[in-house]
Specification:
The complex is a heterodimer of chains A (319) and B (165). Chain A has a single domain (3-288), classed as Alpha-Beta Plaits, CATH 3.30.70.20. In chain A, a hairpin with a 2-residue loop joins strand 2 (105-113) and strand 3 (116-124). Chain A is globular. In chain A, strands 8-1-10-9 form a 4-stranded mixed beta sheet. Chain A has a two-stranded antiparallel ribbon with strand order 2-3. Chain A has a two-stranded antiparallel sheet with strand order 4-5. Chain A is α+β, with helices and mostly antiparallel strands. The longest helix of chain A has 21 residues, at 298-318. Chain A has helices at 3-21, 31-36, 55-63, 133-137, 163-167, 202-206, 212-216, 227-241, 264-271, 290-295, 298-318; strands spanning 41-46, 105-113, 116-124, 143-145, 151-153, 174-176, 194-196, 222-226, 244-246, 256-260. Chain B is mostly helical. In chain B, 60% of the residues lie in helices and 5% in strands. Chain B has helices spanning 8-26, 49-78, 86-108, 117-143, and strands spanning 82-84, 150-152, 161-162. Chain B has a 3-stranded antiparallel beta sheet with strand order 1-2-3. In chain B, helix 1 packs antiparallel against helix 2. Chain B starts with 7 loop residues before the first helix and ends with a strand. Classes of the chains: A alpha+beta (319), B mainly alpha (165). At the A-B interface, helix 4, helix 5, helix 10 and helix 11 of A face helix 2, helix 3 and helix 4 of B.
Chain lengths: 319, 165
């Protein structure tokens, strides 16, 4: 049996075990098969169920603790000195924002809508975009998208230049100085650490397990499944509750879809988000690689034009 | 100075597109802001990744078009009595690698086409490595005063050279 086949069977068995353990509530039908086929999986967050208990935050931190950075100090002197050190190693317990040690944070707000007050808690982490700018524009291929829809940063290849954060509509990745490959290259002149963010527990998924935040949630706020089924379920849920969606079309489509009883414009206005400080917004997010997609056809037309011009020029000369 | 075989418009488009590709390509690494180059008046755009990415795309189109044009002209016309110099051949091969890896990167940026992480990383390094090599070959050609891609073939017997660009 090949490794792939074995992994697929293991993955399917693991998902079926998780399915049984959780009463099938968090895992949509077809998930095991989709995982075995390495198809994109997405998550659905029913914000009407979340009470902001923080169990997902704790589970994420504990499960992924071994992936968290352990920086070498003192940090290399940065040249030029406009390059700021980003050190969260003395503030590892911060949970009210995204940091290299906290890949999931909960934003809690109270907001009026349709004549009543809603207490809304929004678990925030990487949206795992379908066409992620971080992965497409990383100059080193360190940020990457997997076939199963997970977008993650390979810490062995990341230089910590934070381009991924700059191009992310929600500025999700967070930098820790003093770790990574840049220390072995030109630590003062190039790079500044490693970028960290949610990897949707890719290693647990490979083992056929659920992401820690999905598995731990006592209120089953999250569901995981093949993207098209998650989208369909999200629309059903929104219709049932008279709710609203976020994440289906944002940035061209993501694999994290929120359903809320309150419009996201209101949530975003009430959030007082500070996206650049690890507290992401819930506002509009146009497709950041939209122009690149539109221009792709031109890369077929340009060589054809060159070919035609070359043939025509040659013919004119022959004539 | 050998007479160029390519028209003046060709050499201008080639030179401008190569310059734009080189600058916007380097700007894909987070270096222009770090090293104050984007602080120079008029160069602030170099710190904006999407602006430089779009410039890279728009500069790649004429570069791709005229490279194919030159390839066709070489096969049909220019190779009669001419041959690629050693540095010309090396640059032409590297340009081929740059175009192939660049087009694959363009395809990769579409959501409907999936490239595995290992392939993406390989493409990144091949494209970057080819760009650095191309720069070094251009520098070598300039320093050796052997800029022409094409030189007269032995059969033609003139021993002179001719510019492509």
């Amino acid at each position: 049996m090949s490794d792939t086949t074995r992994a697929s069977r293991q993955s399917r068995r693991g998902f079926l075990q998780a399915l049984g353990a959780m009463g099938a509530a968090a895992v949509l039908p077809g998930t095991a098969e989709a995982a075995a086929r390495r198809e994109e999986l997405a998550t659905l967050h029913d914000l009407s169920r979340c009470i902001g208990c923080g169990a997902c935050v704790t589970a994420c931190r504990e499960t992924n603790a071994r992936k968290h950075p352990n920086p070498q100090k003192p940090f290399p002197k940065m040249l030029p000195n406009r390059v700021k050190v980003s050190d969260w190693s003395e503030r590892r317990d911060v949970t009210d924002r995204l940091t290299p040690y906290n890949w999931l944070t909960i934003q809690s707000i109270s907001v009026e809508h349709a004549g009543r007050t809603h207490e809304i808690h929004i678990p925030r982490r990487c949206m795992h975009c379908q066409n992620p700018p971080c992965a497409n524009l990383c100059p080193w291929g360190a940020a990457r998208k997997q076939a199963d829809g997970i977008v993650r940063i390979e810490d062995d290849a990341c230089m910590g230049g934070s381009k991924c954060r700059s191009v992310c509509p929600w500025m999700i990745p967070q930098r820790q100085t003093g770790v990574g490959i840049y220390l072995d290259l030109l630590p003062s002149l190039a790079g500044n650490g490693v970028m960290f963010k949610c990897d949707r527990c890719y290693d647990r998924i490979e083992q056929g397990q659920l992401p820690a935040c999905v598995e731990i949630c006592p209120l089953e706020v999250q569901k995981i499944g093949p993207r098209e089924k998650i989208v369909a379920r999200a629309h059903e849920l929104a219709e049932r509750m008279g709710g609203y969606l976020y994440g289906e079309t944002e940035n061209g489509g993501t694999n994290t879809i929120y359903v809320s009883p309150v419009p996201f414009e209101k949530l975003d206005a009430a959030l007082d988000a500070d996206t650049a400080q690890g507290r992401p917004h819930l506002g509009p997010a146009p497709d950041r690689l939209g122009l690149e997609q539109k221009l792709a056809w031109a890369f077929v037309a340009a060589p054809l034009a060159g070919l035609a011009a070359g043939l025509r020029a040659g013919r004119k000369k022959d004539a | 100075m050998p007479k160029p075989v390519a028209a003046r418009w060709f050499r201008i488009v080639y030179g401008l597109s190569v310059a734009a590709l080189a600058i916007s390509g380097m700007a894909q690494m987070p270096i222009f802001k770090r090293y104050y180059l984007a602080d120079i008046p008029g160069l602030g755009w170099l710190a904006h990744y999407f602006v430089t990415h779009h410039v890279h795309y728009f500069a790649a189109l004429p570069f791709l078009g005229i490279t194919i044009y030159a390839f066709v002209r070489y096969l049909r016309d220019w190779r009669r009595g001419m041959r690629l110099s050693a540095l010309g051949l090396a640059r032409a091969l590297v340009v081929g690698v740059l175009i192939a890896s660049g087009v694959l990167r363009v395809l990769k940026n579409r959501p409907d086409l999936f490239f595995g992480p290992a392939l993406v990383q390989a493409l990144d390094f091949v494209h970057l490595g080819a760009a650095v090599l191309f720069g070094l070959l251009v520098l070598a050609a300039v320093l050796a005063r052997r800029k022409p891609y094409l030189v007269a073939s032995a059969a033609a017997g003139s021993g002179g050279g001719a510019h492509l660009g």
